[in-house]
Design a protein that fits this description.
The protein is an all-beta fold and 116 residues long. The chain contains no helices and 11 strands.
């Protein structure tokens, strides 16, 4: 089992920056990739960014060049640096981890609100 705990959400104005962090614990040696999903009210959960153990990253088109995901601390922590935030980025952000057998693990989510 893998436990994921997110932190760093909050209320910011449009154009501001925010950094989310996710700490993984438990049986982490089998984690193959970690990522960030978000879900806004009335919308489906969508993948925002992902990073593999090898460091390969993927970004959803609308956040490319503004969001950066990185892994730290023996690769058991990932962060999502979000710059130039837009109102449409407001959502509940979930940390996700996938292991070598494609089991998915989820955090509880952290709320990001972008409003003036």
């Amino acid at each position: 089992q893998v436990q994921l705990v997110e932190s760093g959400g909050g209320l910011v104005q449009p154009g501001a920056s925010l950094r989310l962090s996710c700490a993984a614990s438990g049986i982490t040696f089998g984690i193959n990739a970690m990522g960030w999903y978000r879900q806004a009210p009335g919308k489906q959960r969508e993948l925002v960014a992902r990073i593999t153990r090898g460091g390969t990253t993927y970004y959803e088109y609308s956040v490319k060049d503004r969001f950066t995901t990185s892994q730290h601390n023996a690769k058991n922590t990932v962060s999502l640096q979000m710059n130039s935030l837009r109102p449409e980025a407001a959502a509940l952000y979930y940390c996700n981890a996938v292991n070598l057998t494609d089991d998915n693990y989820w955090g509880q989510g952290t709320q990001v609100t972008v409003s003036s």
